[in-house]
Amino acid sequence: MDLLKMRESYQRERVMLCFNGPISRSLIEEIGKALRNYLDTQQAAPAAAMDVFAAYIEMTQNIRHYARRQGYDDEQASATVVVSQDDQGHYRVSAGNLVQTPDGERLAATIDDLARLDRAELKAAYKRQLRQPRVDASSGAGLGLLDIARKSSRPMRASLQPLSDQQSFFSLTATL
Amino acid sequence: MTNAMTMIPDLDIPGSQSTPAIRSDWAAGRLTLQGDSYPENSYELFDQVIAWVERFLSDESRPLALELTLVYLNTSSVKAMMDIFDLLEEAHEGGRPVSVTWHYDPRNERIAELAEEFKEDCSYPFAITPTPVTP
């Protein structure tokens, strides 16, 4: 394993924290705690730190909910999570996971739709979504994305890379 | 049918890293929530809180006060809290005295912003109060 290459890539991308593997409820909390501590030592403003934490929580919980609905095993339910900074110092939260390709296409289309909304429209959409009846008590998937979109300083970016006939790797990046 | 005279037990749920401390006081007409709230399935936690509020509002005619020191809420907790605020709104429209006081650390404006958004949909007294900052 070429750790130097990894290190160089982390440094180039200004990676603060990254994780790859099956993600459990308690792991989300533990990584979240590490993230908060790290942001604290970086003296990030409390509001900025909370935005990063919120994006991280919504993304990882969305991945967990999706994997559970799909009945994925641990391996398939793996998440790739990266928290970094862009060259202007904005925090970036990225998360990737395995999806059924049609689901990924729908999700990518949703992200594109959100990118066209301004702040007031995002707020209205968020409030509308909040008032939707709770279909699946374990999930507010659409609400989570709207929440991240509202906290983002620029539109979220999504990409879908095919892995097999039916499955793709979906990645989402939010810049706070 | 439940007996209206039966008192529902008060809630005393300790907080955890991802769930708030929740305490209810039937005698005083008070419900207190304190801390972060980001469980994966918020209704697993909040259903009992919603049930307590529904029960208090239907069995009693005394005022109900919510004392909140909530910090970070994930969207699933936001949805559950909105259900509670909606119950209060309904009671208020029926002439019932209800109120919310949300205490927040003024160093983090996100908390006040979140509270303000809830307040927009409520017509009963909803105070958003900065807590004194110790230097």
Structure summary:
With 176 residues, chain A is α+β, with helices and mostly antiparallel strands. Chain A contains six helices and five strands. The model of chain A has no long low-confidence stretch (mean pLDDT 93).
Q: Please, could you describe this protein's structure?
A:
The complex is a heterodimer of chains A (176) and B (135). In chain A, α2 packs antiparallel against α3 (46-70), α3 (46-70) runs antiparallel to α6 (141-151) and α5 packs antiparallel against α6. Chain A is globular. Chain A has six helices and five strands; from the N terminus they run αβααββαααββ. Chain A is of the alpha+beta class. The model of chain A has no long low-confidence stretch (mean pLDDT 93). Chain B has one domain (18-130): 2-Layer Sandwich (Transcription Regulator spoIIAA), CATH 3.30.750.24. Chain B has a six-stranded mixed beta sheet, covered by helices on one side. By secondary structure, chain B is an alpha/beta fold. In chain B, β4, α2 and β5 (98-104) form a beta-alpha-beta unit. In chain B, α1 (42-59) runs parallel beside α2 (75-93). The longest helix of chain B is centred in the middle third of the chain and has 19 residues, at 75-93. Chain B contains three helices and six strands. Chains A and B meet through α2, α3 and α6 of A and α2 and α3 of B.
